[in-house]
Design a protein that fits this description.
The chain has about 325 residues and is an alpha/beta fold. The protein folds into two domains: about 150 residues, Aspartate/ornithine carbamoyltransferase (Rossmann fold), CATH 3.40.50.1370; about 150 residues, Rossmann fold (3-Layer(aba) Sandwich), CATH 3.40.50.1370. It contains eleven helices and eleven strands. The strands form three sheets. Strands 9-8-7-10-11 form a five-stranded parallel beta sheet. The protein has a four-stranded parallel beta sheet with strand order 4-3-5-6, sandwiched between helices. Strand 5, helix 4 and strand 6 form a beta-alpha-beta unit. Helix 2 crosses helix 11, helix 3 crosses helix 4 and helix 5 packs across helix 6. The protein is globular. It starts with a strand and ends with a helix. The structure holds N-carbamoyl-L-aspartate. The site of N-carbamoyl-L-aspartate has 11 residues, from helix 2 and helix 6.
Protein backbone atom coordinates (compact mmCIF):
# COMPACT_ATOMS: atom_id res chain seq x y z
CA UNK A 1 0.00 0.00 0.00
CA UNK A 2 1.14 3.55 -0.75
CA UNK A 3 3.45 4.73 1.98
CA UNK A 4 1.49 6.40 4.73
CA UNK A 5 4.57 7.84 6.44
CA UNK A 6 6.49 10.90 5.23
CA UNK A 7 9.71 11.81 7.08
CA UNK A 8 8.71 9.43 9.86
CA UNK A 9 5.38 11.21 10.41
CA UNK A 10 1.90 9.99 9.64
CA UNK A 11 0.72 11.46 6.32
CA UNK A 12 -2.33 9.23 5.85
CA UNK A 13 -3.71 6.47 8.06
CA UNK A 14 -4.36 3.60 5.68
CA UNK A 15 -3.40 0.47 7.62
CA UNK A 16 -1.88 -0.67 10.90
CA UNK A 17 0.29 -3.14 9.00
CA UNK A 18 3.89 -2.07 9.46
CA UNK A 19 3.02 1.01 11.52
CA UNK A 20 6.03 1.43 13.82
CA UNK A 21 5.38 0.62 17.47
CA UNK A 22 6.45 4.05 18.84
CA UNK A 23 4.02 5.76 16.49
CA UNK A 24 1.21 3.40 17.41
CA UNK A 25 1.88 3.86 21.12
CA UNK A 26 2.03 7.64 20.76
CA UNK A 27 -1.41 7.63 19.13
CA UNK A 28 -2.78 5.50 21.97
CA UNK A 29 -1.28 7.75 24.63
CA UNK A 30 -2.62 10.87 22.95
CA UNK A 31 -6.06 9.28 22.59
CA UNK A 32 -6.04 8.38 26.28
CA UNK A 33 -5.17 11.98 27.16
CA UNK A 34 -7.93 13.30 24.89
CA UNK A 35 -10.59 11.04 26.39
CA UNK A 36 -12.18 13.61 28.71
CA UNK A 37 -12.38 16.14 25.86
CA UNK A 38 -13.63 13.45 23.51
CA UNK A 39 -16.64 12.75 25.65
CA UNK A 40 -17.50 16.27 26.74
CA UNK A 41 -16.33 18.36 23.80
CA UNK A 42 -14.18 20.64 25.96
CA UNK A 43 -10.67 22.12 25.74
CA UNK A 44 -9.47 20.54 22.49
CA UNK A 45 -11.81 22.73 20.43
CA UNK A 46 -10.00 25.04 18.04
CA UNK A 47 -7.08 22.74 17.28
CA UNK A 48 -8.40 22.11 13.75
CA UNK A 49 -10.24 25.41 13.29
CA UNK A 50 -10.46 26.31 9.60
CA UNK A 51 -9.86 22.71 8.48
CA UNK A 52 -12.46 20.72 6.58
CA UNK A 53 -13.02 16.99 6.94
CA UNK A 54 -15.31 15.00 4.64
CA UNK A 55 -16.78 11.70 5.74
CA UNK A 56 -16.92 9.70 2.51
CA UNK A 57 -18.85 6.55 3.36
CA UNK A 58 -19.78 4.07 0.63
CA UNK A 59 -20.87 1.42 3.15
CA UNK A 60 -23.23 1.69 6.12
CA UNK A 61 -21.90 2.79 9.49
CA UNK A 62 -23.26 3.86 12.86
CA UNK A 63 -20.32 4.06 15.27
CA UNK A 64 -17.46 4.86 12.95
CA UNK A 65 -19.11 7.68 10.99
CA UNK A 66 -20.68 9.33 14.01
CA UNK A 67 -17.50 9.16 16.05
CA UNK A 68 -15.36 10.57 13.23
CA UNK A 69 -17.86 13.42 12.92
CA UNK A 70 -17.81 14.11 16.67
CA UNK A 71 -14.02 13.83 16.76
CA UNK A 72 -13.57 16.37 13.96
CA UNK A 73 -16.14 18.76 15.47
CA UNK A 74 -14.63 18.51 18.92
CA UNK A 75 -11.31 19.59 17.40
CA UNK A 76 -13.06 22.55 15.78
CA UNK A 77 -12.98 21.34 12.14
CA UNK A 78 -15.82 21.82 9.67
CA UNK A 79 -17.35 18.46 8.78
CA UNK A 80 -19.28 17.41 5.71
CA UNK A 81 -21.02 14.06 5.55
CA UNK A 82 -21.02 12.83 2.00
CA UNK A 83 -23.95 10.53 1.31
CA UNK A 84 -22.80 8.09 -1.36
CA UNK A 85 -26.38 7.02 -1.96
CA UNK A 86 -27.39 10.55 -3.03
CA UNK A 87 -24.17 11.42 -4.88
CA UNK A 88 -22.88 11.30 -8.44
CA UNK A 89 -21.37 7.90 -7.62
CA UNK A 90 -24.83 6.70 -8.59
CA UNK A 91 -24.30 8.30 -12.02
CA UNK A 92 -21.03 6.44 -12.52
CA UNK A 93 -18.50 8.99 -11.24
CA UNK A 94 -15.21 7.30 -10.35
CA UNK A 95 -13.71 7.42 -6.87
CA UNK A 96 -10.81 9.50 -8.20
CA UNK A 97 -13.11 12.09 -9.78
CA UNK A 98 -15.12 12.33 -6.57
CA UNK A 99 -11.88 12.92 -4.66
CA UNK A 100 -10.65 15.64 -7.02
CA UNK A 101 -14.06 17.33 -7.01
CA UNK A 102 -14.07 17.59 -3.23
CA UNK A 103 -10.38 18.58 -3.12
CA UNK A 104 -11.25 21.48 -5.43
CA UNK A 105 -13.65 22.72 -2.73
CA UNK A 106 -10.82 22.98 -0.22
CA UNK A 107 -11.29 19.75 1.71
CA UNK A 108 -8.25 18.90 3.88
CA UNK A 109 -9.01 15.35 4.96
CA UNK A 110 -11.12 12.46 3.76
CA UNK A 111 -12.40 9.76 6.07
CA UNK A 112 -13.27 6.91 3.73
CA UNK A 113 -15.22 3.68 4.08
CA UNK A 114 -15.52 1.46 1.04
CA UNK A 115 -16.33 -2.14 0.15
CA UNK A 116 -13.13 -2.56 -1.90
CA UNK A 117 -9.94 -3.67 -0.14
CA UNK A 118 -7.88 -1.43 -2.42
CA UNK A 119 -10.02 1.73 -2.28
CA UNK A 120 -7.71 3.68 0.00
CA UNK A 121 -4.57 2.74 -1.90
CA UNK A 122 -6.26 3.93 -5.10
CA UNK A 123 -7.20 7.24 -3.49
CA UNK A 124 -3.73 7.68 -1.98
CA UNK A 125 -2.18 7.29 -5.41
CA UNK A 126 -4.37 10.09 -6.76
CA UNK A 127 -4.63 12.48 -3.80
CA UNK A 128 -3.12 15.96 -3.89
CA UNK A 129 -0.02 16.47 -1.71
CA UNK A 130 -1.92 18.42 0.94
CA UNK A 131 -4.79 15.94 1.21
CA UNK A 132 -4.91 13.56 4.16
CA UNK A 133 -6.73 10.21 4.03
CA UNK A 134 -8.05 8.11 6.88
CA UNK A 135 -9.24 4.58 6.31
CA UNK A 136 -12.58 4.09 8.09
CA UNK A 137 -12.90 0.47 6.96
CA UNK A 138 -11.98 -0.92 3.55
CA UNK A 139 -13.28 -4.27 2.34
CA UNK A 140 -11.97 -7.14 4.37
CA UNK A 141 -8.51 -5.73 4.79
CA UNK A 142 -8.12 -2.73 7.06
CA UNK A 143 -9.95 -0.83 9.74
CA UNK A 144 -7.06 0.91 11.46
CA UNK A 145 -8.99 3.19 13.83
CA UNK A 146 -10.99 0.20 15.09
CA UNK A 147 -7.69 -1.61 15.74
CA UNK A 148 -6.42 1.43 17.64
CA UNK A 149 -9.54 1.81 19.75
CA UNK A 150 -9.48 -1.88 20.59
CA UNK A 151 -5.86 -1.57 21.76
CA UNK A 152 -6.71 1.53 23.80
CA UNK A 153 -9.57 -0.34 25.46
CA UNK A 154 -7.32 -3.31 26.27
CA UNK A 155 -4.62 -1.01 27.67
CA UNK A 156 -7.07 0.79 29.92
CA UNK A 157 -8.19 -2.50 31.46
CA UNK A 158 -5.05 -4.60 31.33
CA UNK A 159 -2.15 -2.14 31.38
CA UNK A 160 0.43 -1.25 28.75
CA UNK A 161 2.48 -4.47 28.89
CA UNK A 162 0.86 -6.63 26.23
CA UNK A 163 3.51 -9.33 26.59
CA UNK A 164 1.55 -10.63 29.59
CA UNK A 165 -1.75 -10.76 27.72
CA UNK A 166 -3.52 -13.83 26.38
CA UNK A 167 -6.11 -12.88 23.78
CA UNK A 168 -8.61 -15.01 21.86
CA UNK A 169 -10.10 -13.72 18.60
CA UNK A 170 -13.28 -15.66 17.86
CA UNK A 171 -15.55 -15.55 14.83
CA UNK A 172 -15.56 -14.60 11.19
CA UNK A 173 -11.89 -13.71 10.84
CA UNK A 174 -11.85 -14.39 7.13
CA UNK A 175 -14.17 -11.53 6.21
CA UNK A 176 -13.18 -9.16 9.00
CA UNK A 177 -11.14 -6.02 8.50
CA UNK A 178 -11.38 -5.53 12.26
CA UNK A 179 -9.63 -8.85 12.91
CA UNK A 180 -6.85 -8.01 10.45
CA UNK A 181 -6.24 -4.60 11.99
CA UNK A 182 -6.38 -6.04 15.51
CA UNK A 183 -3.88 -8.73 14.56
CA UNK A 184 -1.42 -6.18 13.15
CA UNK A 185 -1.68 -4.09 16.30
CA UNK A 186 -1.55 -7.01 18.75
CA UNK A 187 1.60 -8.31 17.06
CA UNK A 188 3.24 -4.86 16.97
CA UNK A 189 2.55 -4.43 20.69
CA UNK A 190 4.13 -7.81 21.45
CA UNK A 191 1.04 -9.61 22.76
CA UNK A 192 2.06 -12.72 24.71
CA UNK A 193 -0.43 -15.16 23.19
CA UNK A 194 -2.93 -14.69 20.37
CA UNK A 195 -5.40 -17.52 19.80
CA UNK A 196 -7.77 -17.59 16.86
CA UNK A 197 -10.91 -19.69 16.65
CA UNK A 198 -13.39 -19.93 13.78
CA UNK A 199 -15.14 -22.52 11.64
CA UNK A 200 -12.71 -23.66 8.96
CA UNK A 201 -14.66 -21.78 6.26
CA UNK A 202 -14.24 -18.51 8.17
CA UNK A 203 -10.48 -18.69 8.66
CA UNK A 204 -8.20 -16.59 6.45
CA UNK A 205 -5.11 -17.81 4.59
CA UNK A 206 -2.62 -19.36 7.05
CA UNK A 207 -0.03 -16.68 6.20
CA UNK A 208 -2.34 -14.08 7.72
CA UNK A 209 -2.30 -15.94 11.01
CA UNK A 210 1.46 -15.82 11.53
CA UNK A 211 2.25 -15.71 15.23
CA UNK A 212 -1.22 -16.94 16.23
CA UNK A 213 -2.28 -20.27 17.64
CA UNK A 214 -5.24 -21.79 15.84
CA UNK A 215 -7.63 -23.46 18.27
CA UNK A 216 -10.51 -25.65 17.05
CA UNK A 217 -12.95 -25.54 19.94
CA UNK A 218 -14.11 -22.27 21.36
CA UNK A 219 -14.01 -23.63 24.92
CA UNK A 220 -10.28 -24.30 24.48
CA UNK A 221 -9.76 -20.94 22.80
CA UNK A 222 -11.20 -18.93 25.68
CA UNK A 223 -9.76 -21.09 28.50
CA UNK A 224 -7.65 -18.85 30.72
CA UNK A 225 -7.51 -15.85 28.38
CA UNK A 226 -7.51 -12.22 29.54
CA UNK A 227 -9.59 -10.94 26.65
CA UNK A 228 -12.03 -12.38 24.13
CA UNK A 229 -12.38 -10.34 20.95
CA UNK A 230 -15.57 -11.28 19.09
CA UNK A 231 -16.39 -10.54 15.48
CA UNK A 232 -19.64 -10.11 13.63
CA UNK A 233 -20.56 -12.73 11.04
CA UNK A 234 -20.05 -10.63 7.89
CA UNK A 235 -22.92 -12.09 5.92
CA UNK A 236 -22.76 -9.29 3.32
CA UNK A 237 -19.23 -10.41 2.35
CA UNK A 238 -19.92 -14.14 2.40
CA UNK A 239 -20.92 -16.59 -0.26
CA UNK A 240 -24.00 -18.56 0.79
CA UNK A 241 -23.54 -21.77 2.69
CA UNK A 242 -20.30 -20.95 4.56
CA UNK A 243 -22.21 -21.15 7.81
CA UNK A 244 -24.82 -23.93 8.03
CA UNK A 245 -27.22 -21.98 10.27
CA UNK A 246 -27.13 -19.15 12.76
CA UNK A 247 -28.37 -21.45 15.51
CA UNK A 248 -25.58 -23.92 14.82
CA UNK A 249 -23.06 -21.08 14.82
CA UNK A 250 -24.27 -19.86 18.20
CA UNK A 251 -24.16 -23.38 19.58
CA UNK A 252 -20.59 -23.99 18.38
CA UNK A 253 -19.00 -20.51 18.61
CA UNK A 254 -21.35 -18.13 20.45
CA UNK A 255 -19.97 -16.58 23.64
CA UNK A 256 -22.28 -17.57 26.48
CA UNK A 257 -21.78 -16.87 30.20
CA UNK A 258 -20.82 -20.54 30.64
CA UNK A 259 -18.06 -20.26 28.06
CA UNK A 260 -16.87 -16.92 29.37
CA UNK A 261 -16.51 -18.53 32.81
CA UNK A 262 -13.66 -20.62 31.34
CA UNK A 263 -11.60 -17.47 30.73
CA UNK A 264 -9.58 -15.71 33.45
CA UNK A 265 -11.89 -14.42 36.21
CA UNK A 266 -11.20 -10.79 35.22
CA UNK A 267 -11.36 -11.45 31.48
CA UNK A 268 -12.92 -8.77 29.30
CA UNK A 269 -15.04 -9.10 26.16
CA UNK A 270 -14.74 -6.85 23.12
CA UNK A 271 -16.97 -6.63 20.06
CA UNK A 272 -16.67 -3.90 17.40
CA UNK A 273 -20.42 -3.73 16.81
CA UNK A 274 -22.88 -4.04 15.31
CA UNK A 275 -23.53 -7.16 17.40
CA UNK A 276 -25.64 -10.06 16.23
CA UNK A 277 -27.12 -11.00 19.57
CA UNK A 278 -27.76 -14.70 19.85
CA UNK A 279 -25.31 -15.39 16.99
CA UNK A 280 -21.80 -14.38 18.17
CA UNK A 281 -22.73 -13.28 21.62
CA UNK A 282 -25.40 -14.04 24.23
CA UNK A 283 -27.37 -11.11 25.64
CA UNK A 284 -26.08 -11.86 29.12
CA UNK A 285 -22.47 -11.45 27.93
CA UNK A 286 -23.15 -8.42 25.73
CA UNK A 287 -24.82 -6.60 28.62
CA UNK A 288 -22.76 -8.20 31.40
CA UNK A 289 -20.07 -6.71 33.64
CA UNK A 290 -17.18 -8.07 31.56
CA UNK A 291 -18.38 -6.47 28.33
CA UNK A 292 -16.35 -3.46 27.11
CA UNK A 293 -18.53 -2.81 24.09
CA UNK A 294 -19.58 0.69 25.14
CA UNK A 295 -16.12 1.61 26.40
CA UNK A 296 -14.88 0.71 22.91
CA UNK A 297 -17.41 3.12 21.45
CA UNK A 298 -16.34 5.94 23.77
CA UNK A 299 -12.69 5.28 22.99
CA UNK A 300 -13.53 5.51 19.29
CA UNK A 301 -14.10 9.24 19.57
CA UNK A 302 -10.80 9.82 21.40
CA UNK A 303 -8.81 7.64 19.00
CA UNK A 304 -10.26 9.44 15.98
CA UNK A 305 -9.44 12.80 17.54
CA UNK A 306 -5.85 11.66 18.06
CA UNK A 307 -5.61 10.47 14.47
CA UNK A 308 -7.09 13.65 12.95
CA UNK A 309 -4.82 15.75 15.13
CA UNK A 310 -1.75 13.75 14.07
CA UNK A 311 -2.65 14.20 10.40
CA UNK A 312 -3.90 17.81 10.40
CA UNK A 313 -2.73 19.41 13.64
C1 LIG B 1 -17.05 -2.98 11.88
C2 LIG B 1 -16.87 -2.71 10.41
O1 LIG B 1 -17.65 -2.00 9.79
O2 LIG B 1 -15.90 -3.21 9.91
N1 LIG B 1 -17.92 -2.12 12.52
C3 LIG B 1 -17.38 -1.00 13.06
O3 LIG B 1 -16.74 -0.23 12.39
N2 LIG B 1 -17.55 -0.82 14.37
C4 LIG B 1 -17.36 -4.38 12.15
C5 LIG B 1 -18.54 -4.99 11.50
O4 LIG B 1 -19.22 -4.39 10.67
O5 LIG B 1 -18.79 -6.13 11.84
Amino acid sequence: MTDQLRDGRLHHLLTLEGLPRPLLERLLERADALRPDALHGRAARGMLAGRTVVNLFFEPSTRTRTSFELAARRLGADVVNFDAGLSSTRKGETLGDTLRTLEAMGVDAFVVRHAADSALAELAAQAAGRTRLVNAGAGKRDHPTQGLLDMLTLRQCKGTDFSRLRVAIVGDIRHSRVARSDLHALRTLGTGEIRVCAPRALLPEPAELAGCERVERVDDAVAGVDAVMLLRLQRERMEDGLVPSLDAYFRDYGLTPERLALAAPDAVVLHPGPMNRGVEIADAVADGPQSLVLQQVSNGVAVRMAVLEALLG
